[in-house]
Design a protein that fits this description.
The protein is rod-shaped. Helices cover about 50% and strands about 5% of the residues. A hairpin with a 4-residue loop joins β2 and β3. The protein has 2 helices and 4 strands, in the order ββββαα.
C-alpha cells in the first residue's frame, strides 16, 4: 500500500464526498494518490452543500516535510499533539516550552509575592485591629470614669455642700 502523501491544494476544497477519497491522517486529511507531494492549482467544483466543505488552506503542508508520517509516529507516543517534526517546528516547540515555563514561573513568583504581601498586610491589619480594640476599651473605660466623676460632682452640688462654706 502506498504511504499517504500530503498534497497542497491552492484555492477551494472539493465540496462533495464523491469527488475525492480522503482518509484522516495525522489530524489532517491526506489523499491516497500515486504521485508524491505536489501543489494543485485552481478551484474545486462547486456544490450545493457548502456547510460540509473542508478548506484546504487549514491543512496546507510544505512539500519538503512530506515524510512526516514515520517521524511523527515516533514522537506521537511521547506527545500526542505533534504534527510536524522539522527542525523549525522542534525549535518552535522548545521555545514554546521555554516560554510556557517562563510565564508559569513569572505567574508563580508574582502570585507568591502578592500572597506574601497580603499576609504581611493582614498581619499589620490584625495588629491595627488589636490596637484599635484596646483604644476602644480605654476610651470606654475613660467615658465610664468621666460619667462617675460627673455624677459625683452633681451629687456634691445637689447637697448644698458649697453653700455652707463661708470664707
Amino acid at each position: 500500500m502506498q504511504e499517504p502523501k500530503a498534497v497542497i491544494v491552492s484555492g477551494e476544497a472539493p465540496e462533495s464526498d464523491d469527488e475525492v477519497t480522503i482518509r484522516a491522517g495525522m489530524s489532517f486529511p491526506t489523499m491516497l494518490v500515486q504521485n508524491t507531494c505536489g501543489t494543485i492549482q485552481g478551484e474545486a467544483l462547486e456544490s450545493d452543500d457548502e456547510n460540509n466543505s473542508v478548506s484546504s488552506v487549514g491543512y496546507a503542508v510544505d512539500p519538503s516535510t512530506c515524510s512526516y508520517t514515520s517521524e511523527v509516529r515516533v514522537h506521537k507516543v511521547e506527545k500526542s499533539c505533534v504534527k510536524y517534526n522539522s527542525l523549525l517546528h522542534r525549535k518552535l516547540r522548545d521555545c514554546n516550552k521555554s516560554l510556557d515555563r517562563n510565564i508559569r514561573e513569572l505567574m508563580t513568583t508574582t502570585v507568591n509575592n502578592a500572597v506574601e504581601q497580603l499576609v504581611d498586610t493582614n498581619k499589620q491589619l490584625v495588629k491595627s485591629e488589636l490596637t484599635l480594640q484596646e483604644a476602644v476599651c480605654k476610651m470606654q473605660e475613660s467615658a465610664n470614669n468621666f460619667e462617675q466623676a460627673l455624677r459625683s460632682l452633681q451629687r456634691t452640688l445637689d447637697e448644698d455642700y458649697f453653700h455652707n462654706i463661708k470664707i
